[in-house]
Amino acid sequence: MVKGIEDKPVTEWLSVRVEDLHAPLTFDLITGGHSNLTYKVTDQDGRRWVLRRPPLGHVLSGAHDMVREHRLLSSLSQSAVPVPPVVGLCTDTSVNGADFYVTEFVDGYVLRDGASASEVATEKRGHLGRQLIAALAAVHSVDLEKTGLADLGKREDYVARQLRTWLRQFNAMTARDLPIIEQVHDALAANIPQQHEATLIHGDFRLDNCLVTGDGEVASVLDWEISTLGDPLADLGILLAYWSEPNDKFLPLGDAATISDGFLSRSELIDAYRELTGRDTSYMNFFFAFASWRLACILEGVHARYVGGANVEIPEEVEIFPDSVVHLAERAAATLDL
Length: 338
Known about the structure:
This protein is of the alpha+beta class. The chain has 2 domains: 7-104, Phosphorylase Kinase, domain 1, CATH 3.30.200; 114-335, Alpha-Beta Complex (Aminoglycoside 3'-phosphotransferase, Chain: A, domain 2). The chain is built from 12 helices and 9 strands. It has a 5-stranded antiparallel β-sheet with strand order 1-2-3-5-4, sandwiched between helices. A hairpin with a 5-residue loop joins strand 1 (26-31) and strand 2 (37-42). The longest helix has 24 residues, at 284-307.
């Protein structure tokens, strides 16, 4: 029996939605941790699906909303954004103890570190960077009215609201005295660029939240749980904050695929986004600093849950997170010339 899966009721639920389902099913955990749990589901004919459900342990209020994530995937199915086709959503917690949804299985690689980077040939990695930017631009060009996502969230003051939220989360989780977090927060809050538009934003767009092919194409964009409406440049900033370069003094998440030969630099990603969308990227230093600070707050929370013995799988690199938090805050401060 696989933790987080009730085999019999889940099989019965899926058999109603998939024609000629050949049980028994096999469930394999693909990813776990502080994000939603993702399982590969395989029937006796070798057909595959993906099941997503919340973590088994304590979750933050408002996080890990399966209904919301299912809504996004369903709404984007006819858009230019590559997403996996949806099979169904279950909100009857008697089936599996929590809401879950199932999608078709999409073949592709997740590039998290140097070893997995080898799945894409060096000469294809620049193309992959441009395809990532194309996928992000597609997210930001979604017709909100046509997809029914116009009411997904508040449109105005996205960065200001994010600053308040993540500072509150940081202070609720940390046991450390880190005045630089408040200092960077205050500098960011005092210098927010004017928000000129509100688009769909992914909220966690990064290389390892995409499935990619060996030819450097983006097969699918995953992990839509914190998507909302807001400033698209903040979304680009998030990609940059996670995107490590070979000359970076530290790797906040440990080994990174993007330090391997052939990947674009952060400045090249910005150039590609500006050329593709026509948006003004003059303030990307601000958005890079904001996203770096935000990531520092996120990692502090992950580490606090690890220390507190939360009943979830935690990334192996979690022990470096206390240092990563400081480095990220310092990077944000340096970018802002504090």
